[in-house]
């Protein structure tokens, strides 16, 4: 029964994205609905990504193609020609035919699809939850005890975190969010109900502040269509975020990719931008697919990939991705924090159509929320030690390796990780 429920939720989540993006998006494999493993990845119709130095030979191979404008130096979004070369492999999807043709002539990874990246409660065969109601007046959980948040303690003072997400909605009752800024999100639909994935960025900011009370947070609004955005646009957004001079970038979004290769647009950003900023750290969610397949950008060696612990603190959350590429696991199940005020209609089985009423707080699960918890721990350590974000992250990961959980891996729990730093 649980597997059937997960499958129905999975179908509902992909249906939401297909409705939002229309013919612009395709799913691989084409018969994904009939396969036990479901979809491998979502990608953009009629578009591929190519490193700048390969564009000319790819255009010649494809006998056409037009580079699109925008993006970042190092990677090009190539608009495919109308006609597929006659000797290209047979496939119902013209985009896949171009990709297979490039594989044969140039090798895998020279030409890649433009993948769709999505916030981590989305598109998962074993997804985390939709937001759940909590009683009025319930406090955030987890939250560091007062001694950790007092002046001079590990409160994130002087540290700046930029969150790339669906945007920011002020939650007046959540006093710990005072001073958080960001791009306002389009949180309500035409009927006045909370949209799917709305409040995601607000909840993440709340988790950050519950761990590092005085950290500076800016929430950016990028994942505005069904909680998703294209790879090329995400690379450009990350590049723009560097103008804000963050210490930490928190990204609770990602995707699997074709052949499990590193996402090309993000690979170029990390190699040519992120790695050239001293001390800057990207903390990314490992995804909610209960899979060991690579989930990007969390799987990049340069990122801190965060999986989720179950609420018992001893097991991996059932939905969390896992594997040697996941750097650390942190609490990510049944967290409570700031949310929107209003009514929300569930879109996922078995609760489809159920109406939930929220009063500024919610309970939510996902690697999406374990990620800002780890980002908050990094910020907290920085405010005590004077380390930069990269140094603080490395120290915390080294600490996590000293207390691994059998069958899970390295673990960070807030009070254990920061306890030794208290004055």
TrEMBL record:
Residue ranges of every copy of the Peptidase S8/S53 domain listed in the record: 156-383
Alphabetically ordered keywords of this record: Hydrolase, Protease, Serine protease
Active site: 165, 200, 368
GO molecular function terms listed in the Swiss-Prot or TrEMBL record: serine-type endopeptidase activity
Pfam families assigned to the protein according to its UniProt record, in alphabetical order: Peptidase_S8
Domain of life assignment: Bacteria
Gene3D superfamilies, alphabetized: Peptidase S8/S53 domain (3.40.50.200)
Entry-linked InterPro entries: Peptidase_S8/S53_dom, Peptidase_S8/S53_dom_sf, Peptidase_S8_Ser-AS, Peptidase_S8_subtilisin-like, Peptidase_S8_subtilisin-rel
A cellular component annotation (GO) from this entry: extracellular space
An individual GO BP term: proteolysis
SUPFAM superfamilies named in the record: Subtilisin-like
Family, as annotated: Belongs to the peptidase S8 family.
Designated name of the protein: S8 family serine peptidase
Source species of the chain: Kribbella sp. HUAS MG21
């Amino acid at each position: 029964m649980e597997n059937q429920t997960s499958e129905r939720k999975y179908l509902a989540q992909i249906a939401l994205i297909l409705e939002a993006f229309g013919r612009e998006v395709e799913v691989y494999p084409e018969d994904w609905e009939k396969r036990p493993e479901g979809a491998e990845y979502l990608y953009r119709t009629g578009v591929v990504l190519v490193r700048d130095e390969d564009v000319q030979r790819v255009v010649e191979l494809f006998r056409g193609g037009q580079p699109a404008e925008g993006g970042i130096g190092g990677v090009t979004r190539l608009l495919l020609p109308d006609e597929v070369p006659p000797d290209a492999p047979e496939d119902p999807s013209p985009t896949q035919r171009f990709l297979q043709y490039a594989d044969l002539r140039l090798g895998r990874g020279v030409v890649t699809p433009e993948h769709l990246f999505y916030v981590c409660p989305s598109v998962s065969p074993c997804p985390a939850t939709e937001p759940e109601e909590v009683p009025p007046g319930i406090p955030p959980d987890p939250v560091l005890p007062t001694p950790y948040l007092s002046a001079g303690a590990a409160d994130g003072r002087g540290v700046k975190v930029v969150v790339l997400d669906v945007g920011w909605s002020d939650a007046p009752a959540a006093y710990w969010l005072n001073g958080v800024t960001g791009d306002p999100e389009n949180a309500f639909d035409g009927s006045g109900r909370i949209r799917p994935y709305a409040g995601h960025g607000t909840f993440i900011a709340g988790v950050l502040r519950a761990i590092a009370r005085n950290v500076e947070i800016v929430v950016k609004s990028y994942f505005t269509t069904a909680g998703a955005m294209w790879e090329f646009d995400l690379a450009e957004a990350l590049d723009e975020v560097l103008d804000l001079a963050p210490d930490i970038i928190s990204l609770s979004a990602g995707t699997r990719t074709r052949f499990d290769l590193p996402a090309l647009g993000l690979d170029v950003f990390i190699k040519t931008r992120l790695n050239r900023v001293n001390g800057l750290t990207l903390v990314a969610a490992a995804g909610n697919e209960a899979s060991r397949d690579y989930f990007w950008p969390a799987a990049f060696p340069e990122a801190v990939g965060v999986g989720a612990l179950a609420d018992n603190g001893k097991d991996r959350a059932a939905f969390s991705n896992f594997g040697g590429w996941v750097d650390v696991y942190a609490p990510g199940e049944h967290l409570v924090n700031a949310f929107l005020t209003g009514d929300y209609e569930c879109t996922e089985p078995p609760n489809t159509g159920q109406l939930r009423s929220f009063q500024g707080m919610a309970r939510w699960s996902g690697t999406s929320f374990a990620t800002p918890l780890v980002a908050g721990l990094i910020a907290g350590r920085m405010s005590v030690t004077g380390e930069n974000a990269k140094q603080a992250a490395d120290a915390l990961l080294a600490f996590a390796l000293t207390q691994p959980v059998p069958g899970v891996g390295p673990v960070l729990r807030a009070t254990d990780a920061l306890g030794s730093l208290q004055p």
